[in-house]
Amino acid sequence: MNRETVPRVRAERMNTSHRDSSQRLLDFARQLRVDQSKAERILWSRLRNRQFLDLKCRRQHPVEGYVVDFLCVEANLIIELDGDQHYEGNAERRDERRDAKLVSLGLNIVRIPTLCVVRDVNLVLRWIEDVIVDNALLRPRPSPRPSPGVPGEGVKTPSPQPSPGVPGEGDGRRFDLR
What we know:
CATH architecture of the domain at 29-141: 3-Layer(aba) Sandwich
CATH topology of the domain at 29-141: Endonuclease, Chain A
Number of helices: 5
Order of helices and strands: HHEEEHEHHE
Distance between the termini: 23 Å
CATH superfamily of the domain at 29-141: VSR Endonuclease
């Protein structure tokens, strides 16, 4: 991936009020990290350590009572890999309810069949990049704060208020490659 195509962003503190910290869920997330599928290992090898668009990604991360496969904080983006179990019985309906809850928190969700990742991870990464860029999911990097005690700096100005409709502020969306 060419990092020059997307503006660099700095990790901003994510609103963690929806982060689930129950011990049982944390233990489950840890176990999922150990028991990764082949597709999860492949994608994680390309997302970890800010290798993809300089985004900080987390894997098997608890959010609002669910464990999401991957979370890219700066883009408020969840990447879910859907294996065969997501197409059996009531699974699609459960996924829709789960996604609706996560979208209501302002998170964006990308659903990708695991077979696509295994066959061509580069194509999947290009598609995720297109979703991020085309939908302006990255917020611009904020200006650095002035240094205290330096003459001419440190003048307090009112903080800009977030405008309605800014991605990640309650208007999450779902993107589906299925």
